[in-house]
């Protein structure tokens, strides 16, 4: 049974019922996602972006190892991978494009914009719980699904190359943003020195710990699990704490009007307390002391990635409008500046949580 469309592929994952409905599922910058209803089954079906994940088999091996570990230990929730009717984690359509499916987590929702301290705390808890649960993942080290994904020096070099090349003549539209990003290149040296000295030990981290990747119970608001495990790999705790702070404290959608983007102080406090309440006992004093860098660092990385993609012609992130990546850049710069101003408060929270 072949086919290239989502409905044809969905049938290859649904052994217990006829596919009744397949509809696009919003959210996410990378994969094309659909919600599938088939009898008693609800699946999240994804066509993987092989421009980004060039070795989907290796990436899915990472995901399977992590989800199996979480299911075995029970220390954190997990979205269950659904194998195909043939028992494979991936299905290839007639154009050799890979697809996968997860069982939809019932009664769980995500929040692109976190509307209050209680929700920010639960987002922090979801990622803190995940962080704590994967530190004893058995077996060989995880491989990076995207080589160099958290190589900040490489990202800086790619950014500067595109600024100089300016292949689409867009540099004139973003001169201020280019200088804003350049002003924060200095954070790379601080990060590299901390990792090199051992002050920031290498951990297993989610690497995309944004609020939209945390599922919360629709009724109680409590943390259920985290999703989008494609980027789980070795890294530092700053990468996860920073993405939580970058995404769970903002006042408006990051994809919206950048002029309205800011952060809420009560959500900063709640997010840190949520994360450290679950994972803080694992952290060294050196790691805690570095947490004020986490939010600005991850906002800087996001700004640089969005601006690099804008200069390159929007080839990486999915966009809805011509200026989408530039607007995203501007939003991240505003978040970076706001989190930088909150540094003293973040330091006090990290030391005492």
Write down the domain tally: 2
**Biggest β-sheet: strands ordered side by side in the sheet:** 1-2-3-5-4
Distance between the termini: 55 Å
Q: Briefly, what CATH class of the largest domain?
A: Alpha Beta
Q: What's the helix-strand series?
A: HEEEHEEEHHHHEEEEHHHHH
- What is the tally of beta strands? 10
Low-confidence stretches: none
Annotated CATH architecture of the largest domain: Alpha-Beta Complex
Q: The CATH topology of the largest domain is what?
A: Aminoglycoside 3'-phosphotransferase, Chain: A, domain 2
Indicate the proportion of strand residues. 5-15%
Mean pLDDT: 93
Q: What name goes with the CATH superfamily of the largest domain?
A: Aminoglycoside phosphotransferase (APH), C-terminal lobe
C-alpha geometry = globular
Number of contiguous helices: 11
Percent range of helical residues: 40-55%
Structural summary, described in words:
The protein is of the alpha+beta class and 353 residues long. The chain has two domains: 99 residues, Phosphorylase Kinase, domain 1 (2-Layer Sandwich); 236 residues, Aminoglycoside 3'-phosphotransferase, Chain: A, domain 2 (Alpha-Beta Complex), CATH 3.90.1200. It contains eleven helices and ten strands. A hairpin with a 7-residue loop joins strand 1 and strand 2. Helix 7 packs antiparallel against helix 8 and helix 8 runs parallel beside helix 11. The longest helix is centred in the last third of the chain and has 28 residues. It starts with 5 loop residues before the first helix and ends with a helix.
């Amino acid at each position: 049974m072949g086919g290239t469309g989502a409905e044809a592929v969905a049938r290859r994952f649904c052994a217990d019922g006829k596919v009744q409905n397949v509809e696009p599922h919003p959210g996410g910058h990378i994969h094309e996602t659909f919600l599938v209803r088939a009898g008693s089954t609800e699946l999240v079906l994804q066509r993987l972006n092989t421009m980004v994940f060039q070795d989907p088999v290796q990436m899915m091996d990472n995901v399977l190892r992590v989800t199996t570990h979480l299911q075995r230990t029970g220390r954190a929730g997990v979205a269950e991978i659904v194998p195909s009717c043939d028992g494979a984690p991936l299905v290839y359509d007639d154009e050799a494009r890979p697809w996968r499916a997860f069982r939809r987590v019932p009664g769980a929702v995500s929040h692109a914009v976190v509307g209050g301290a209680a929700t920010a705390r639960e987002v922090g808890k979801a990622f803190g719980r995940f962080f704590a649960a994967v530190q004893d993942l058995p077996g060989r080290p995880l491989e990076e699904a995207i080589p160099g994904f958290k190589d900040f020096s490489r990202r800086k070099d790619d950014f500067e190359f595109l600024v100089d090349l300016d292949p689409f003549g867009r540099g004139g539209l973003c001169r201020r943003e280019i200088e804003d990003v350049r002003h924060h290149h200095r954070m790379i040296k601080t990060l590299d020195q901390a990792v090199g000295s051992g002050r920031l030990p290498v951990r297993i981290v989610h690497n995309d710990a944004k609020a939209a990747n945390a599922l919360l119970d629709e009724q109680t608001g409590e943390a259920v699990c985290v999703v989008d495990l494609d980027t789980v790999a070795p890294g530092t705790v700053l990468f996860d704490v920073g993405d939580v702070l970058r995404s769970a404290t903002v006042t408006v959608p990051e994809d919206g009007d950048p002029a309205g983007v800011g952060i809420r102080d009560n959500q900063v406090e709640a997010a840190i307390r949520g994360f450290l309440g679950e994972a803080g006992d694992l952290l060294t004093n050196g790691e805690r002391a570095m947490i004020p860098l986490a939010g600005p660092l991850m906002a800087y990385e996001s700004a640089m990635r969005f601006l690099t993609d804008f200069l390159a012609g929007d080839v990486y992130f999915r966009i809805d409008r011509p200026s989408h990546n530039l607007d995203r850049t501007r939003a991240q710069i505003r978040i970076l500046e706001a989190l930088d101003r909150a540094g003293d408060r973040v330091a006090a929270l990290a030391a005492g949580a």
